[in-house]
Amino acid sequence: MLVEPDKADRKLPIWTLLPNIMTVGAICAGLTAIRFSFQGNFEIAVQLILLACVLDGLDGRVARMMKSESKMGAELDSLADFANFGMAPGLMLYAWALQDARGYGWIAVLFYAVCCVLRLARFNVGNKADEDEGPADFFVGVPSPLGALLVLLPMFLSFLWWDSLVDYDVLIALYMAAIGLLLVSRIPTYSFKTTTVYSSNIKFILIGFAASLAILMTYPWLSLVIIDLGYFGVMIWSIFKYKALNKKE
C-alpha cells in the first residue's frame, strides 16, 4: 500500500536549510562553552560564545537574503539566544568564580538567565504584534548577545591583569544581576544594524575589520575588555542621543 505524501510536505532546496543549520551550530557552540567552562578551559569557552554571537548575527540575514524565513527558524533563533546568551554566560561565571559561594551565587545565575529570557520574550511579543521595540536606530534594553559579553567582563579583567577578582564573588554576583536588569530595562541602546557607510569607504572598513580581528586573536582579553567598556560608553551616548531626537520631534 502506497502512502500518499502529506500535502504540506513539499520539496525544498537543501540550501534553504543553511540559516537553521547556523542556528543549531550556535546552540552547539553555546552548550559546548558550558562544558569547557566546567573543565576549566575558559579561553575556548569564550571563543565559542564569540562564535555563537557571529552565527546569531548571520543566520537571520542569510535567511532574509535567501528568502527562506520561517516561523520555525524564528522560534529556533530565540531558543538559541537563550541557550547561548542566557544560560551559557551565567554558568561560565558560576564555574569560574561562584561554585564556592553561598546560595547568592546561584541566585545571581538564575536572575540573569530569567532576565535574558524575559528580554527575548518581550522582543518576540513585539515582533508577533508587528510592533517595534522603539525607533529603528535603537533597541529597548541591552540585546542578549551584548549582554553576554558584558556579563563576562569580570572574567576578562581577571585574565588580563586582576587575578584576585575571582575572590570577590559577592561583587561578581551583584554585577551579574545588574547586567540582567540592563537586559530588561527600557533604556535605549543604539542599533548598529542601521549604520550606513559610503561605498568609497568600504575598503577602510574591511581593513579595519581585519586589523581588529587580528588584535582580538592576539590580545583576546584586552580586546574584549575594550569592547565591553566601549559599549558601556555607547549606552551612555545612546541615552543622550535618544533624548535629543525626542526633543526635535
Describe the protein's architecture and organization.
The structure is a single chain. This protein has 249 residues and is mainly alpha-helical. The protein contains 9 helices and 2 strands; from the N terminus they run ααααβαααβαα. A two-stranded antiparallel sheet has the order 1-2. The mean pLDDT is 82.
Secondary-structure map:
Layout: H1 18-38, H2 42-66, H3 71-98, H4 103-128, E1 138-140, H5 144-151, H6 153-160, H7 169-184, E2 188-190, H8 202-218, H9 220-248
Antiparallel strand pairs: 1-2
Structural class by helix and strand composition: mainly alpha
Described by the principal axes of the CA atoms, the overall outline is globular
Roughly how many Å apart are the termini?
69 Å
- The whole-angstrom Rg is 20 Å
Q: How does CATH name the architecture?
A: Up-down Bundle
Residue runs with pLDDT of under 50 for 5 or more positions:
none
What is the number of independent domains? Answer: 1
Order of helices and strands: HHHHEHHHEHH
| Beta fraction | under 5%
What name does the CATH topology carry? Answer: Four Helix Bundle (Hemerythrin (Met), subunit A)
CATH class descriptor: Mainly Alpha
Q: Report helical residue fraction.
A: over 70%
